[in-house]
Amino acid sequence: MDALGHVNNGRYVDYLQDARVDFLFRTAKELGADDLETGLLVARHEVHYRAPLVFRDEPVRIELWISEIKAASFTVDYEILDTEPRRTYVEARTRLVPFDFGAERLRRISPVEREALSKLVGA
């Protein structure tokens, strides 16, 4: 919480990361794109704060999906929200790039990764 009793803006990025890591790692393994588990870097975050979120016992929902796939990057879009009644607290976007840590360089998305990610577009 920040001084005004709202969730701190930096904490939202932690929430988004937790949701993205769970979503991609679990899904990548299920779809046979294991390299996505260990070879990704965040290239960019965009976070749009829509409403303050205050402390409460009920969890919020984080919805996320793949919105764009390019040759050497892909984008995850998110919403942090309540569904009943619908209220959006944050809309966000993260661009991720595949990285070869052994060679210490960016790499292109493999055909297997592209196929797996394509199944998650708008998921």
UniProtKB/TrEMBL annotation:
It comes from the Bacteria. Pfam families: 4HBT_2 (PF13279). GO terms for molecular function: fatty acyl-CoA hydrolase activity. SUPFAM superfamilies: Thioesterase/thiol ester dehydrase-isomerase. Keywords: Hydrolase. CDD domains: 4HBT. This is Acyl-CoA thioester hydrolase. It comes from Kribbella caucasensis.
